[in-house]
TrEMBL record:
Domain VOC as annotated: residue spans: 7-124, 137-255
Name by which UniProt lists this protein: VOC family protein
Species of provenance: Microvirga terrestris
Domain of life: Bacteria
Short name of one Pfam family: Glyoxalase
Length: 258
């Protein structure tokens, strides 16, 4: 079955050192990487067990001096990229890359929501099914978490664009609620308030690992930094919030086997 409008279909790392990033994620998550066919910008594809799960792209020239920092971004499927991009801008978001064709791949745009959180939208050339987000598999994204200054406004914005619905909520005391997001009959992630004195609004993507304690050793061992965890979450699994050696934030989720 082809992906629905509003599905997360791809994840992409923008980084200032692609070789070092490829080595890091290979060691921590087990990803292989290969050059993308036809790319003239050094784009690579991350894969695991023969399945493509994400991409890796070095900064374009001058991007770092202009203030770009390493980051992970998600791609959300839409039926019409041009119409969806125009709708985002009309509702207070911004457009960073206008609707653009990638020959043989699809049409995409880079946008940000009204709180400044960046994301991509995309319509593939072929109506295939992406499994980059698959909560049943290690090495795939298992959770999409948005930290934002105005959770209610963010929920309304994404619901109007992508049809996401509120699920259950987990109280976090004075911080407010950890609000689950449902789409297509499953829970795909959550929206939460930004932590006081914490980083600015952003998406954090949690990738599945086979053993959270092995990953917890690998992250600092490969030059990354763990900011939180391992910590148990509902479902009997554990999470880590970390950043890679270039500073890109990401998450890991998996069981504790020892």
């Amino acid at each position: 079955m082809a992906n629905q409008h509003g599905d997360f279909i791809w994840y992409e790392l923008l980084t200032k050192d692609a070789d070092a990033a490829a080595r890091f994620y290979g060691a921590v998550i087990g990803w292989q990487n290969r050059p993308a066919e036809g790319s003239d910008r050094g784009y690579r594809v991350f894969g695991i067990n023969g399945t493509d799960v994400g991409g890796l792209m070095p900064f374009p020239p001058g991007a770092e001096n202009a203030g770009m920092r390493p980051m992970w971004l998600g791609y959300v499927a839409v039926e019409n990229v041009d119409a969806a991009a125009a709708d985002v801008v009309r509702d207070g978001g911004a457009q960073h890359i206008p609707p653009t064709d990638i020959p043989g791949v699809g049409r995409f745009a880079m946008l940000s929501d009204p709180q400044g959180v960046m994301f991509y939208i995309m319509r593939g050339t072929v109506d295939g099914t992406s499994t980059a987000f698959d909560q049943s598999k290690f090495g795939h994204c298992n959770w999409n978490e948005l930290a934002t200054g105005d959770p209610q406004a963010a929920l309304a914005f994404y619901r109007a664009r992508f049809g996401w619905e509120k699920g259950d909520a987990m109280p976090m005391g004075e911080m407010g609620d950890y609000q689950f997001i449902n789409h297509g009959g499953r829970t795909i992630g959550a929206v939460m308030p930004c932590m006081p004195e914490g980083p600015p609004p952003r998406w954090t993507f949690y990738f599945g690992v086979e053993d959270i304690d092995v990953a917890a050793q690998a992250v600092p061992g490969q030059g990354g930094t763990i900011h939180y965890g391992p910590a148990e979450v509902p479902g009997g699994v554990f999470i880590i919030v970390a950043s890679d050696p270039q500073g890109a934030p990401f998450g890991l989720v998996g069981p504790r086997k020892s």
